[in-house]
Amino acid sequence: MQILHTDIAIIGGGGAGLRAAIAAAQTDPNCKISLLSKVYPMRSHTVAAEGGAAAVTLQQDSLQAHFDDTVAGSDWLADQDVVDYFVSHAYEELVQLEHWGCPWSRRDDGSVQVRRFGGMKTERTWFAADKTGFHILHTLFQTSLQFANINRLDEFFVLDLLVVDQQIAGVLAMQLSTGELYQIQAKSVILATGGAGRVFHYNTNGGIVTGDGMALAYRHGVALRDMEFVQYHPTGLPGSGILITEASRGEGGILLNKDGYRYLQNYGLGPETPLGKPENKYMELGPRDKLSQAFWHEQQKGRTGNYGEHAVVYLDLRHLGSSYLNERLPFICELAKSYVNVDPAKAPIPIRPAVHYTMGGILTDGQCQTSIGGLYAIGECASVGLHGANRLGSNSLTELLVFGKVAGVAAVAHAKQRQALPSSALNAQCQQHHQQLQARFGAKQADRVASLRKAMTLAMEQGCGIYRTTEGMQQCLNTLQQLKQRYQQLAVSDNSKIFNYELLQHYELGFGLDVAEAMCASALARQESRGAHQRLDQGMQSRNDTDYLQHSIAQLMPETAGAAGGSAKISYQPVRITKSTPAARLYGGAATKQEPV
Amino acid sequence: MEKTVEKTLVIQRYNPEQDQRPSQQRYQVPFDNSTSVLDALLYIQQSLDPSLAFRWSCRMAICGSCSVMVNGIPKLGCKTFLREYSGDLLLEPLAHFATEKDLVSDMTLFLQHLQAVKPYLIRQEQSAATTPATKPQPHKQTPKQLAKYRKFSSCINCGLCYAACPQFGLNPEFLGPAALTLAQRYNLDNRDQGKAERMPQLNGKNGVWGCTFVGFCSDVCPKHLDPAAAVNQGKVASATDFVIGLFKP
């Protein structure tokens, strides 16, 4: 086993991890930063974000308005002090990216262009055509190359955190190209591993989005917060789940059922806005939870169409014309052509909701600090308190930047004052984990990683989908617990060391099972409907602020914690409300009526 | 859609822990109109042979992971479909790179070449972002100025152009299409002032003049960003730089 010493280890090379690395490198040029990623950083799933990043930009906009949209979008489950910090630091971060070369789309006068986005009152979403995440990721990656104190460890997979007396001491990682284990001793560790969308069957996420960081922290007693809130993006391609950006609707795209009817007007989002004249917070520019729920109702009523075996509705962009589509949505045109053989200038794109984003994650305070000293979490793997029960599109790319910087700076400060920890304790932990790793190998069995994973993703799809029932969730939880039992016996048949993807996927499945169970148990415990968590059970179909204006906290019971062992215990924590008291969450004409004149 | 029809994939296998040299293995894969090469590889890994090694992630042609040779041509696995091939498919790791295992290529050189061209915005004066007195503001950049480099900023680092480039095949030190395109991307950006710092690399023996303008890199680029054009624009810049150099004291 190799031993490396570093000041800060960052786990994950996506937008959040890279932003944190740059912030740390700039804060202290002598700080040794190790950036671990299980893939090359530019493969990270930030790359697939399309639509844009939000920040108050226009004269007529205000921080208060961005705050209000975010808090209402969260169904009042966001921590309002965190939202405040976020909206007031959003703009400077997007400008910082501009100074690093991000090719933001522009107006004729050379200023930055902003577009409409769902649930946002005003145009405030910066974009780089429809490849915003791609450009943000590559800009950050390329910028990071100029810092000599960022030491990249590409294709290193973290197996465990090293923790001594509730203080982080580093990580145990495997170099995929050799199978060699590395004990990486670090004074601060930042988890930036992304979401867990791959625990569901139909999702917009890349294969790497398996919830690793969440499970790593969870197994060491760190709570996962608000895990029941899983965002279905209303427009994924049928089957593959490939993302078709919300910006398609921001630019004027409309949603039709099989009869060509703009069905959203039946679900509290109308009245219908004229074709080619999208209005903020109306119709197609409602928030993602409401739009995905509307699809479900249309499906129940038999008003969805079919694409192969999949129920679909249609995203119609034809009225935008091919030249505008090529300027604003070139990637969408390419994706539609490649994967469903549709030219959006000529025909509507069949789409359906697909799991997109985990609102919940590793519990942190407003400075990204977890309950383990020196351990931070940022981006989709974290729950800093920004998104509550439903995230607004274009808030998450900005989140990566705002909180990536916060964590990078905090990690430097912590590393400076941290005392060395006894390495004997670390060696013992690593040896123990090494034995657990060896025990994973065995003869070929009927059960395979792929078959267990499929059983997990289908169970989550059925039990924890857009609408949920007690019975369905209980069944899902039972299935997950059985799968965890089977997982204990599941052997890796390939015993090679170099690029052993069966072993990698075995670990990912174990992580995913823990995260899936936390999601399902949190969902079962929340006996109300809020944001992305909607129940069909009697008496639970609406929001219940009396009992559930609270964050859920999932903890793995310590006596049974280990590789996909144990079970989740759910408790609650108050939401920090500073200035916006919970009100009815209204969109479309209903919201306008209610607004004070 | 029933997947009743099968296709044969012949895949180059190589595990350096046990194999002296690569060998070929045949797999039967069910497919329909929508089955990509990546889908087929995932089917094999999940249902037939979990030891098959290949990289992938986004499956939507943006992360650049799943590059392979299909019948000798560099392709993105997720954007290449079985329906496009009438006979068997031969899958091999990217040409011109060392093979680590099966379809996994060693991308170390590629990353070194990217880094060598200083692919980041270089500004001589203090950036406005670092003066705390005024709120930092974005630079101006008109759509026209953006259009000058926008296409060249769309490289997904898949490496297909290196597998297509005969020069890189002969001389691995040649910076190659993607890195030269990236240099050009920053050189053409009106916010950048780092061209002079990049020119020594571009003018050097492994820079733009290594390119013999075969143009195969542009043919295989899955994002159609025409690296051959970028490299040859680089030649003009390099020649201009040389001429200006003659007259400078």
TrEMBL record, chain A:
Gene3D superfamilies: FAD/NAD(P)-binding domain, Fumarate reductase/succinate dehydrogenase flavoprotein-like, C-terminal domain, succinate dehydrogenase protein domain, Succinate dehydrogenase/fumarate reductase flavoprotein, catalytic domain. Pfam families: FAD_binding_2, Succ_DH_flav_C. It catalyses: a menaquinone + succinate = a menaquinol + fumarate; a quinone + succinate = fumarate + a quinol. Residues 7-397 form the FAD-dependent oxidoreductase 2 FAD-binding domain. It is found in: Cell inner membrane. Residues 453-587 form the Fumarate reductase/succinate dehydrogenase flavoprotein-like C-terminal domain. It is a peripheral membrane protein. It comes from the Bacteria. Its cofactor is FAD. Transmembrane segments: none annotated. Belongs to the FAD-dependent oxidoreductase 2 family. FRD/SDH subfamily. Part of an enzyme complex containing four subunits: a flavoprotein (FrdA), an iron-sulfur protein (FrdB), and two hydrophobic anchor proteins (FrdC and FrdD). This is Fumarate reductase flavoprotein subunit. It comes from Alishewanella tabrizica. The lineage of its organism: Bacteria, Pseudomonadati, Pseudomonadota, Gammaproteobacteria, Alteromonadales.
UniProtKB/TrEMBL annotation, chain B:
InterPro entries: 2Fe-2S_ferredoxin-like_sf, 2Fe-2S_ferredoxin-type, 2Fe2S_fd_BS, 4Fe4S_Fe-S-bd, 4Fe4S_Fe_S_CS, Beta-grasp_dom_sf, Helical_ferredxn, SDH/FRD_Iron-Sulfur. Keywords: 2Fe-2S, 3Fe-4S, 4Fe-4S, Iron, Iron-sulfur, Metal-binding, Oxidoreductase, Tricarboxylic acid cycle, Ubiquinone. It comes from the Bacteria. Residues 146-175 form the 4Fe-4S ferredoxin-type domain. It catalyses: a quinone + succinate = fumarate + a quinol. Pathway: Carbohydrate metabolism; tricarboxylic acid cycle; fumarate from succinate (bacterial route): step 1/1. Signal peptide: none annotated. Binds 1 [3Fe-4S] cluster. Binds 1 [2Fe-2S] cluster. Its cofactor is [3Fe-4S] cluster; [2Fe-2S] cluster; [4Fe-4S] cluster. Pfam families: Fer2_3, Fer4_10. Residues 7-97 form the 2Fe-2S ferredoxin-type domain. CDD domains: fer2. Its EC number is 1.3.5.1. It is an enzyme of class 1 (oxidoreductase). Belongs to the succinate dehydrogenase/fumarate reductase iron-sulfur protein family. This is Succinate dehydrogenase iron-sulfur subunit. It comes from Alishewanella tabrizica. The lineage of its organism: Bacteria, Pseudomonadati, Pseudomonadota, Gammaproteobacteria, Alteromonadales.
